[in-house]
Amino acid sequence: MNEMVPFVDLGLQHQPIQAALEQAIRIVMQQGDYVLGQAVAEFEGAFATACGAAYGVGVGCGTDAIALGLQACGIGAGDEVILPANTFVATLIGVLRAGATPVLVDCDPHTALIDLSAVEAVITSRSRAVIPVHLYGQMVSPSQLLHLAQQYNLLIFEDAAQAHLAEREGYRAGSVGEAAAFSFYPSKNLGALGDGGMVVTRNPRIAQTVKSLRNYGASRKYFHTEPGTNSRLDTLQAAVLNVKLPYLWKWNYNRYTIAQQYDQLLAPLAGVTPIQNDSGRGHVYHLYVLKATQDSVSRNAILEGLAAAGIGSGIHYPIPCHLQPAFADLRYAEGDFPHAETLAQQVLSLPMYPGLSSVQVNQVVAVLKQLLPHSVSVAV
Ligand SMILES: *Cc1c(COP(=O)(O)O)cnc(C)c1O
Fold first, then answer.
1. Inter-axis angle of helices 299-308 and 358-370, to 10 degrees?
2. Residue 298 to residues 75, 122, 334, 346: CA-CA distances in angstroms?
3. How far apart are CA 104 and CA 340, in angstroms?
4. Would you say 198 and 178 are in contact if contact means Cβ atoms under 8 Å apart?
5. Residue 90: CB within 6 Å of ligand 1?
6. Ligand 1 center to residue 63 CA distance, Å?
7. Residue 342: what are its φ and ψ, rounded to 5°?
């Protein structure tokens, strides 16, 4: 009898460190420094260092990290910000919240990452920044990004919400651009017990501005130099994240080995193609995503078959940003970004989390195989 395999299981992560988590929460309650307390400053320093960045400023969530981070970079009304259509909507929402003009571009069909030649094609005199989204845990090539940014005088703002500690070409996510946004939403590679986010940067002026923006635009108490907002990383969440951070390397490595096992087991199957990993060991596999490319078996049939067998799955993402009703004002239409649109039809995400066992991975692939009746096994 097969066991259920959930899409994510955060309990596996928390159980072994339950006592330390409770202790950290108790200390915050004893100290009573619930807002911008000691644990926030500690976590900001520790996480920025882990990213290879000089400064970290904790905010309420990843979306705020994008909005406030862009604002602190001096990006706003009249500025064009280039970002991929194939991302979670929060990237686009962050740009709009900063008051800038979003310019969407297509992605590479193999890696699902922003297509940098498409970026080059939309550059105008008003282009100020590009947002590489390190999607599914894989970084956009830093060398190509830096080359492009230098050539066109673009600011790089990384959306690293899915890429905690990801690496490529010797760079770590969060250390390539002027600034970067992270999310600590519970299911991210490093997750809080609720919402959380951070802007990391090498630039002290940007860090200082985010600190002011997250705290009503106050440069000191009751002295407001800009119309900011209230978006702070909770001390309780920072305390939890301080306990979890030391495990992140191990958890990411576990994700990587699970992905390798999936890769190996899926290779002989016709009809499914994993999203390409161009960054080797540096991919941190926030999600394990594959494309259902066989005509006779629709993606939805696979999803239903997995669900019937008790296996969780997801679609990241079913509707690309430019076709979401919320952004109709941007006046994009079907056909504008064909690769993003095809991916939206084809992608599905398999269970992926630290602690997922190799027995479970085998079970997921065995069920998947049964759902691909025409798949041919390659003789070994
Ligand atoms: C999760 C995520 C965000 C937003 O983070 P929140 O903390 O949920 O606001 C932004 N961009 C990407 C790519 C994400 O995956």
1. 130
2. 42, 34, 21, 8
3. 11
4. no
5. yes
6. 6
7. -65, -45
Residues in CB range of 191: below 8 A, 6 or more apart: 10, 13, 184, 185, 244
Ligand 1 pocket, residue 231 CB under 6 Å: no
Ligand 1 neighbour 88 (Cβ under 6 A) = yes
Hey, what are 56's tokens? 């970290």
How far are the Cα atoms of 236, 294, 298, 312 from residue 345, in angstroms, in the given order?
Answer: 40, 12, 9, 18
- Give the separation between CA 242 and CA 173, rounded to whole angstroms: 19
Closest CA to ligand 1's atom 5: 62
Q: Decide if 191 contacts 171 (C-beta within 8 A).
A: no
Ligand 1 contact, 237 CB (< 6 A): no
Catalytic residues, by residue number, are: 188
Alpha-carbon distance of 59 to 23, in angstroms, equals 23
Instruction: Go through the domains of the chain in sequence order and give each one's CATH number.
Output: 10-247 (3.40.640.10), 248-371 (3.90.1150.10)
Segment 7-64, tens digit of pLDDT: 999 999 999 999 999 999 999 999 999 999 999 999 999 999 999 999 999 999 999 9
Chain centre distance of CA 46: 19
DSSP structure string for 235-296? HHHHHHHHHHGGGHHHHHHHHHHHHHHHHHHHTT-TTEEEPP-SSGGG---SSEEEEE--TT
Q: Cis bond leading into 288, ω under 30°?
A: no
Mean of per-residue pLDDT scores for the chain: 96
CA distance 267 to 377: 9
Label residue 269 by pLDDT band (50, 70, 90).
very high
